[in-house]
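Hi team,

Below is the intake form for dTMP kinase from Vittaforma corneae. Please confirm the fields before the structure is written into the shared record.

FORM ID: S-0412
PROTEIN: dTMP kinase
ORGANISM: Vittaforma corneae
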Amino acid sequence: MSFKLIVLEGLDRSGKTTVSSMLQQRLQPCTIIRFPNRATETGKLLDKFLKKQIKFSDHTIHLLYSANRYEEETRIRDLLKSTHVICDRYWLSGAVYSTAKGLDFEWCKSTDKLLPQPDFTFFLDVPVEETSKRTCFGNEVHDKIEFQRKVYEIYKSKVEEEGVYEINGLQEPEKIVEAILECLKP
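The structure came back. Fields below:
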């Protein structure tokens, strides 16, 4: 059996965590990895940054997010020998968010080029007008409507270019999972 690396992307509070958990139940064997992984050394710094407790330059924070993904590189490669892996965010999030801050998309993308590449990437399309109404919006550094609007536009512009499947994220989670499973069929 060929195991797949499946990535869910989207704005903050677009349903990625809910959908990845539901997808895991339907796609066995399967492991979920969430980024940033706030339990690692880089993840602890990212957690402080996201909670507005420390600041970094835009280039530094991009590289820190990238390093956080590289901390999981070996684990992802090992897991793919025996299970599907769902990533709740991956390199595209890093590139899109950093591009929204004014960094060059191709440079941002290049920092993650040695990571395992996804077999499937899905963008859960939920506009910022909806995500900003959801629980806890505003608690973290990127939770600003104008910034999230920039992120959304960049995601939308990169969907076709990066071979990403766009899924209507306003549907019920069960329908989103069904749409993803349909795309995964050989």
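SUMMARY LINE: The two ends are 12 Å apart (CA to CA).

Thanks, M.
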